[in-house]
Write a structure and sequence with these properties.
Strand content: over 45%
Largest sheet: 7 strands, mixed
InterPro entries: ICAM1_3_5_D2, ICAM_N, ICAM_VCAM, ICAM_VCAM_N, Ig-like_dom, Ig-like_dom_sf, Ig-like_fold, Ig_sub
Signal peptide: 1-23
Number of helices: 5
Shape: elongated
Number of strands: 42
Family: Belongs to the immunoglobulin superfamily. ICAM family.
Transmembrane segments: 490-511
Function: ICAM proteins are ligands for the leukocyte adhesion protein LFA-1 (integrin alpha-L/beta-2). ICAM3 is also a ligand for integrin alpha-D/beta-2. In association with integrin alpha-L/beta-2, contributes to apoptotic neutrophil phagocytosis by macrophages.
Distance between the termini: 200 Å
Structural class: mainly beta
Length: 551
């Protein structure tokens, strides 16, 4: 029985060995995940398992930091930390003295989070080349990257990195473009795409900041327009212009007279820009006017010499601006003390030019005819070969008593019945005299025209008065009826025939007081005169004074 049991156990043992050997040769090792795509710096969980029923030594081989998480009879789970580069991970199991392993390829990716576009230079002259360079500092895997340069929404250039050698791979693209005017203010950008669909991942996008290109044309020097001679303290307009400049409206003007900065007013039209400024020189001598024009990175400067001189108007002096008629007065013309060198002078009324540096003058006896007369003093100065002239003018006012001349205040006047008429009498004198006329002891209006009637016929007494005295004159008014037109010619002939006598009478009346002549009036006219007398006391007093003087 013992032998039988031993034989049975030995048989079973051999059967087990045969079955176990077959199982050990057939076991498998697997790893999960089957494909690993990890963002740089992140962790990855890996599970290794086997079909061996009684596995022996097992584990994973990697240079990343690994931490065991959990395990079972036929599996183990690990955590890989800080995965930063592509690698191959090995998972192994032993079974019955036989070791098998499985591999896991780990792909590390970096999305194109930062896309940098460089535009050099930012301002480009027309027909010059500019460079566009786009690069992504950190991106992986590079073979899945595509870079695209855009002008606005238009594609300029596209580049992928699939076929480049690993050691020469750099995530950048560079192109050169020739500048044209129409490219001014164009927007440029760079777009990056990282397509990880082949690794079981997604599509990542990244874009650069927009760069704006500026185009300019600025090949000609500015031109300055200014008089070569400037007078101290006098405002002068200067201008600076530049042609064939683009964009003209962005040109900047800076203008100086010596160290004095001016304030230019800018204008532009088409491809021409200009600026006008007002300059007021404060120092005499040779100076320089400069104009600096800048556009983008370039600037042009122009200079022009000017000479600043001092030449104030000459000094004209009249001893008395308001002399009485018959007074002797001195009229003097002299150069201003700030004029250098001394000018040559000429005074209206003086016989000759003066000697440079010497004043010129003459003595004048003021007459009534000199009232309102203008006197001028001219100064002549040569500066830088140019003859300059300055003039000063003064008006003389001669004071004299009132006059009632026949030319402006005729002693005989004819009115036409039924028409609007006024007394024609303009006094002369300085100061301007006041004129008062009375008729039948009543003040007669000299401002409002009146409808002429036969009652207006008669003699009027007019008195002109100013601060220097007064003068009176009789004016005879004849009112001619409408049916007297035929007799008017005869009347004119009679007047002409008696012209000499009338002139003699007028001259006589100019040198004696007026004599009031009264004429009989109808009852209604007398009644009106009485009422006017009661309302015009001043006129009555004037008439009584005239009677007391035997008018």
């Amino acid at each position: 029985a013992i032998c039988f049991v031993w034989v049975l156990w030995s048989s079973l043992w051999h059967v087990r060995l045969i079955i176990s050997g077959a199982t050990e040769e057939l076991f498998e090792v697997s790893i999960w995940p089957h494909q690993a795509l990890v963002k740089s710096g992140q962790s990855l969980m890996v599970n290794c398992s086997t079909t061996c029923l009684d596995p022996g030594p097992s584990g994973i081989e990697t240079f990343f930091k690994k931490t065991p998480l959990s395990r079972g009879p036929q599996w183990k789970e690990f955590l890989l930390e800080d995965v930063t580069e592509n690698s191959i991970l090995q998972c192994f199991f032993s079974c019955g003295g036989i070791q098998k392993d499985a591999s896991l390829g780990i792909t590390v990716y970096e999305p194109p989070e930062q896309v940098i576009l460089e535009l050099q230079p930012a301002w480009v002259a027309v027909d010059d080349a500019f460079t566009l360079k786009c690069h992504v500092p950190t991106v992986a895997p590079l073979e899945n990257l595509t870079l695209t340069l855009l002008q606005g929404s238009q594609e300029l250039h596209r580049k992928n990195f699939m076929n480049l050698a690993v050691d020469t791979q750099r995530a950048e693209i560079t192109i050169n473009v020739r500048a044209q005017r129409e490219d001014d203010r164009c927007n440029f950008s760079c777009h990056a795409e990282l397509d990880l669909s082949s690794h079981g991942g997604e599509l990542f996008h990244g874009s650069s900041a927009i760069k704006v290109l500026r185009i300019f044309e600025f090949s000609q020097n500015p031109r300055i327009s200014v008089s070569p001679l400037l007078e101290v303290g006098m405002a002068e307009t200067v201008s600076c212009e530049v042609a064939r400049v683009f964009p003209a409206k962005e040109a900047m003007f800076y203008m100086f007279l010596g160290d004095q900065e001016l304030s230019p007013l800018f204008s532009w039209k088409g491809d021409t820009a200009w600026a006008n400024a007002t300059v007021r020189a404060m120092d005499t001598g040779d100076q320089e006017l400069s104009c600096l024009v800048s556009l983008g990175p370039t600037e042009q400067k122009a200079r022009k010499p000017v000479h600043v001189y001092s030449f104030p108007p000459p000094v004209l002096e009249i001893e008395e601006l308001y002399p009485l008629a018959g007074t002797d007065i001195n009229v003097t013309c002299s150069g201003h003390v700030l004029t250098s060198p001394s000018p040559t002078l000429r005074l209206q009324g003086a016989p000759d030019f003066s000697v440079p540096g010497e004043p010129v003058w003459f003595l004048l006896t003021a007459r009534e005819e000199d009232d309102g007369r203008n006197f001028s003093c001219e100064a002549f100065l040569e500066v830088q070969g140019q003859q300059l002239i300055k003039t000063t003018t003064i008006q003389l006012h001669v004071l004299y008593k009132p006059r009632l001349e026949e030319s402006s205040c005729p002693g005989n006047q004819t009115w036409v019945e039924g028409t609007e008429e006024m007394l024609a009498c303009i006094p002369k004198g300085n100061p301007a005299p006041a004129l008062l006329c009375t008729w039948d002891s009543v003040i007669f209006s000299l401002e409002v025209p009146q409808k002429a009637t036969q009652n207006h016929a008669g003699t009027y007494c007019c008195t002109a008065t100013n601060q220097l005295g007064s003068v009176s004159k009789e004016i005879a008014v004849v009112v001619q009826g409408l049916n007297e037109g035929i007799n008017s010619t005869i009347f004119v002939i009679i007047i002409v025939a008696l012209g000499v006598g009338v002139i003699a009478i007028v001259l006589y009346l100019n040198y004696r007081p007026c004599k009031t002549r009264r004429r009989k009036l109808p009852y209604q006219q007398k009644e009106k005169g009485r009422k006017r007398k009661e309302k015009n006391h001043f006129a009555v007093e004037h008439a009584e004074k005239c009677s007391a003087q035997n008018c």
